[in-house]
Amino acid sequence: MSAPARHYRVSHRTTYEYSTEMLDGYSVASLLARETPTQHVVSTVLTTTPEVDERDDRSDVFGNQVVQLGIHHLHTQLIVEVVTEVEVRRQLEPTVNPAWETAAAQIAAVRGSLALDVLPFVAGSRFVPTHVDDQKDADNRGVVRSELLDAFASEFPPGRSMLDVIGGVCAKIFTDYRFDPTSTTVSTPLSDVLVKRAGVCQDFAHLAVGVFRARGLAARYVSGYIETDPPPGEVKTIGADASHAWCSVWVPEHGWVDFDPTNNIVGPDRHVTIGWGRDYADVAPIRGVVIGPTSTQKLSVAVDVARIG
Predict the structure, then answer these.
(1) For the segment 101-128, what is each residue's pLDDT rounded down to a tens digit?
(2) CA nearest 152: which of 220, 105, 215?
(3) HEC profile of 116-142
(4) Which of 83, 210, 223, 247 could form a disulfide with 283, with the two C-beta atoms 3.0–4.6 Å apart?
(5) How much is the mean pLDDT over the chain?
(6) Where in the chain is the domain with CATH 3.10.620.30?
(7) What CATH class is the domain 100-282?
(8) Measuring CA to CA, which residue among 2, 66, 81 is closest to residue 28?
(9) Distance between CA 298 and CA 287 in Å, rounded?
(10) Among 206, 211, 230, 209, which Cα is nearest to 304's?
(11) SS3 at position 242
């Protein structure tokens, strides 16, 4: 019998404050939860303050729910708030478990509609430059790929199964890399993470994705949230949670297997999925521009993940 679903309510509030009035503004938000084989979205609602003049809800190329917002009047702040309720179940363990090199050969041979789902996650991308597919970045991509192959060579002996490799890579990042929010920024390159051996969930997700892609396997970056517990004896602080990132690797004849290297979890069930892409750039929570006079900008984010059943 499968474990019962966990029910979560997530609130994510992003506030931009400007020191002078802005004339115009455009934002793209990737904050609405999506249906997955293990997640049912009960509701996911995005509201803004002030009300926007333009709103376009659409799906991106990966099937994520994206909202484009436009404010075409004077404003000194923008608040984007999303409240989501979901039911989450643990992933089923694959009944097939090929050797990793067999899986890589099967992925290389993928054709038709399946190729559209799998192959975009084999190639290098902006934050995970593992393949020499752009002459301008050929040197950097080659160096990063070589470093990834060297650093994780012990996890990929011939004949080792996909599930063993996934668990091994997950545990190695958790053990060998230090969680340190001061060591990196949103734009820190993967090569720096390899040198510093430190970072945050975004960095560790990029690192894991790169390790698999460097060997011809398909891996995607997943954005969402994780249920966190307060220290013993302390009450959970509302709004103290944060966005989270983890990974998913494709196993032929089964599908995608999620794992979280930041917390050394394979097949997570305390995670709420918002979307996935090649890397952070595809699923950044909010990105955009404002138009107006010179101004300072203050950004604050409050996230709360609560289990409600």
Answers:
(1) 999 999 999 999 999 999 999 999 999 9
(2) 215
(3) HHHHHHCCCCCCCCCCCCCHHHHHHHH
(4) 223
(5) 92
(6) 100-282
(7) alpha beta
(8) 66
(9) 15
(10) 230
(11) coil
Cis amide prior to 50 (ω within 30 degrees): yes
Q: What is the pLDDT of residues 199-222, one digit of tens each?
A: 999 999 999 999 999 999 999 999
For CATH 2.60.40.2250, list the domain ranges present in the chain: 6-89+284-307
pLDDT for 180-196, tens place per residue? 999 999 889 999 999 99
Helical H segments across 177-295, by residue range: 190-196, 201-213
Q: How far is CA 131 from the centre of its chain?
A: 20
Residue with tokens 């992933």: 91
Please enumerate, as own/partner, the contacts of 131-139 that have beta carbons within 8 Å and a separation of 24 or more.
131/213, 131/214
d(CA 245, CA 276): 9
Length of the chain: 309
Scored b (16 or more CB within 10 A) or e, 61-79 reads ebebbbbebebeeebeebe
3-class DSSP assignment, residue 264? coil
Residue 75 in tokens: 């404003």
**Mean pLDDT, range 280-290, rounded to an integer:** 96
C-alpha pair distances (Å), 294 with each of 50, 77, 268, 274:
21, 15, 45, 34
At 130, the pLDDT band (50, 70, 90 cuts) reads confident
d(CA 278, CA 185): 18
CATH number of 6-89+284-307: 2.60.40.2250
pLDDT, tens digit (0-9, with 9 covering 90-100), for 148-177: 999 999 999 999 999 999 999 999 999 999
